[in-house]
Amino acid sequence: MAEKKKFLLRIDEDTYSALEKWAADEFRSINAQIEFILKDALRSKGRIKEKKSPPKDA
Question: What are the phi and psi torsion angles at 13 (to 5°)?
C-alpha cells in the first residue's frame, strides 16, 4: 500500500458536522469519508483511472 500524504484541512463547523453524520451513517471515519468523496469526484471527472476489481472465483 502506498504511503498516504498528510495535510491540514480547515473547514467550517457546519460542513464538518454534516461530514461527521454522513461518515457515521456509512460506518466510516471522517477522514475515510473525505477520501471516499474526493476519489469519487476525481473518478467521475476522469482525473484518475477506475480501479478494476479483481475477478471473482466461481
Answer: -60, -40
Domain ranges of the chain: 13-44
Q: Which residue has the higher pLDDT, 55 or 49?
A: 49
Q: Which helix (H) or strand (E) holds 17?
A: helix 13-25
DSSP state of 11: -
Contact 56, 49 (CB under 8 A): no
CA distance 23 to 37: 10
Structure pTM? Answer: 0.77
List the Cα angle 11/15/16 in 5-degree steps.
75
